[in-house]
C-alpha cells in the first residue's frame, strides 16, 4: 500500500509501481504530501469507464492559492512560494494506447509536438472489462478491498461535463509508504476552504424558493456546512486535527482493536481504537486510528512504534490528519 485517498464517499487505497515508474510515483506522492489534492472535486466521471482528479480549480474557482489547472511538484516548489503550471516528462515517452483493468491509477499525459508532459491530473478506471486508453501513464492500482468506493463513484449522478450533481471531494491524502526523500525545498501548502462552488443535494437547492433573498442566505449557510462536512464533519471553522490521534496502517487483517490497545497502552491511557473495515464484507482494510487521552502519550507512541512488528506485519504510524476524530470540549 502506498496512498490512502479519503473521499466524501469512502476510502481508496492505491499501490504504486515505484520501480518501473519512479517519476510518476515521486511526483504523485510529493503532490499528495504537499496537500495539493485536499478538498478537490472528482470530475470528468465517465460511467463504467473512468474518473479524474487533480485540477485544483474545478469546483474551487474562488481559491487564492494553487491557481493552476495542472502542475507538477516542480511547479509547486518554486521560489518565493510561487506556483507555476510547470509539467515534467514522464518515465516513458510511448503514448501507445494501453489496456487498463478496473482500478488502474494513471497520470494524464499532455501530448506535445516534441515531448509529452505530466502533472497533477490523475485518472482511475472504473470498467469491469479491460479498456483501451491513450495519453495516460498507468503507474499504480487500487486494491480490490476498496473497489466499493469506486462503485459508489461510478453510480453517482453527474452533469453533462461529468461532474457529480452532489460533490464528491477528497478530504485527505494519507501517505502509507513513500520511498523517496523530500527535496531540499519541500514545503506543504496552506489550503483554503471551498465555500462558494459547493454542489448541494437537490432538495436543499430548492429550499426556501418562495423568498429569493431568504433562499440565497440559507443555501449559502448550507453550502458552508457542506464544506465543513467535506473537511471531516467539523463543527466550526479553524479547528485542526486532534494531536492525540495516530493514524496506523499496514496492519495484519487479523489484528484486532483490543490487541492494538493492549500494545499501545504502555504509552498512556488509550481512549479508543478504530480499525477501518470494508462496508460490505466487514474485512479489515489494514489501517485505522488510535486515540490517547494526552498529547504526550500520542507523541511517545509515535516516536517509538513506527515500524514495529504486530502479528508479523511491520506497521506504520503517523499523526492523524483525519478530522473525524477531533474532540471538541
Automatic annotation (TrEMBL):
It comes from Torulaspora globosa. It is found in: Nucleus. InterPro entries: CRIP, Cyclophilin-like_dom_sf, Cyclophilin-type_PPIase_dom, Nucleotide-bd_a/b_plait_sf, RBD_domain_sf, RRM_dom. The keyword Nucleus applies. SMART domains: RRM. Coiled coil: none annotated. Belongs to the cyclophilin-type PPIase family. PPIL4 subfamily. SUPFAM superfamilies: Cyclophilin-like, RNA-binding domain, RBD. It catalyses: [protein]-peptidylproline (omega=180) = [protein]-peptidylproline (omega=0). Its EC number is 5.2.1.8. This is Peptidyl-prolyl cis-trans isomerase. One of its GO terms (molecular function) is peptidyl-prolyl cis-trans isomerase activity. It holds the Pfam family Pro_isomerase. Residues 244-322 form the RRM domain. PANTHER family: PEPTIDYL-PROLYL CIS-TRANS ISOMERASE-LIKE 4. GO terms for cellular component: nucleus.
Amino acid at each position: 500500500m502506498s496512498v490512502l485517498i479519503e473521499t466524501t464517499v469512502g476510502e481508496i487505497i492505491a499501490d504504486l509501481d515505484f520501480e518501473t515508474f519512479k517519476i510518476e510515483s515521486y511526483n504523485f506522492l510529493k503532490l499528495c504530501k504537499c496537500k495539493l489534492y485536499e478538498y478537490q472535486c472528482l470530475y470528468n466521471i465517465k460511467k463504467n469507464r473512468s474518473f479524474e482528479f487533480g485540477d485544483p480549480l474545478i469546483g474551487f474557482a474562488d481559491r487564492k492559492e494553487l491557481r493552476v489547472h495542472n502542475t507538477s511538484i516542480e511547479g509547486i516548489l518554486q521560489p518565493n512560494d510561487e506556483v507555476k503550471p510547470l509539467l515534467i516528462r514522464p518515465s516513458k515517452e510511448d503514448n501507445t494506447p494501453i489496456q487498463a483493468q478496473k482500478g488502474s491509477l494513471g497520470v494524464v499525459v499532455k501530448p506535445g509536438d516534441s515531448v509529452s508532459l505530466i502533472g497533477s491530473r490523475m485518472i482511475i478506471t472504473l470498467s469491469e472489462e479491460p479498456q483501451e486508453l491513450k495519453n495516460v501513464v498507468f503507474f499504480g492500482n487500487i486494491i480490490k478491498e476498496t473497489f466499493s468506493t469506486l462503485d459508489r463513484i461510478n453510480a453517482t449522478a453527474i452533469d453533462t461535463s461529468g461532474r457529480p450533481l452532489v460533490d464528491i471531494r477528497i478530504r485527505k491524502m494519507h501517505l502509507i509508504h513513500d520511498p523517496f526523500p523530500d527535496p531540499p525545498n519541500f514545503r506543504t501548502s496552506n489550503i483554503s476552504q471551498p465555500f462558494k462552488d459547493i454542489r448541494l443535494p437537490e432538495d436543499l437547492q430548492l429550499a426556501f424558493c418562495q423568498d429569493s433573498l431568504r433562499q440565497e442566505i440559507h443555501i449559502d449557510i448550507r453550502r458552508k456546512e457542506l464544506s465543513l462536512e467535506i473537511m471531516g464533519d467539523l463543527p466550526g471553522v479553524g479547528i485542526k486535527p486532534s494531536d492525540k490521534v495516530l493514524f496506523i496502517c499496514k496492519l495484519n487483517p487479523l489484528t484486532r482493536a483490543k490487541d492494538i490497545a493492549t500494545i499501545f497502552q504502555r504509552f498512556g491511557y488509550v481512549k479508543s481504537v478504530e480499525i477501518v473495515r470494508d462496508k460490505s464484507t466487514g474485512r479489515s482494510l489494514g489501517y485505522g486510528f488510535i486515540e490517547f487521552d494526552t498529547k504526550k502519550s500520542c507523541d511517545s507512541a509515535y516516536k517509538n512504534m513506527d515500524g514495529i512488528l504486530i502479528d508479523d506485519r511491520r506497521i506504520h504510524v503517523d499523526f492523524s490528519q483525519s478530522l473525524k476524530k477531533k474532540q471538541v470540549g
